[in-house]
Amino acid sequence: MDFKRVTIQDIDKIKPYILGKDFQSSSFTLGVLFLWADDYKLSYYEEDETIIFRGYSARKNLYYSYPLGKNPWKLLNQLPKPYTLLYVPEHRLSEFPDAKITRSETDFDYVYRFEDLYELKGKSKAAYRNHINRFLKDHPENHYEILSQKNIPDVIKILNAQTFQNPGRADDIKHNYAALCLYDKLPFTGGILYSNGSPAAFSIGEVIGDMLYVEFEKRVDGVDGAPDYNRVKFLSLFADKGVRYVNREEDCGDLGLRTSKMRMGPDHFIYKYRVDVH
Prior knowledge:
Helices cover 30% and strands 31% of the residues. It is α+β, with helices and mostly antiparallel strands. The mean pLDDT is 94.
């Protein structure tokens, strides 16, 4: 199998497989694949309308993805044993009766119903409505813009102002910058919130099927309510696009993120599985 390194020049070849996948894990969006390709030394092999990815984990261990496309087992049967598959969708696990299967307890996606996050109805969402009302009261001079090359410099201002204690968040910021560099080449939609003429928060995501993947979301400190108002304004960009679910991806092991995402009331989780074949 002659694997080829993943580069942005391959997007037209890889894109149909991602858009046609039959599962909704955030590990297989175009943004994730191309922005993390160098980190994991991602490469791909394509045969018979099927594609498989190969990469190296943070510990330099070789792994493969479950193939996408017409004949996954035509490619799997060519892999030298033993081999490891990461991010195997749950409905494919029965294909590996003799393998060791491990579910990640720290890497799973939080999925919400679109209307729950957009409309913020009910008692459980009262705090978010209050945050938004506070923002609108304190910052009547605000406006929201669809992200374009014109306001990329303002997004950079938000990124430059980030403070964090978890080392993993620094890596996340690096990919934020990379997303801005490839913003026009990837199927991203973004929006940025301004308060009193200054950038306050932004979001970037992509849609696959009926799911919106929120891949980047940042705000500046000290602007109460800006994250919640920014989130609603961002979702408004998709209100008539047939989006039913919002995937806010994993929490990166960050306790603060986990608490925040749980409080927002996820509809369900998408778990990710490792399969070791011997």
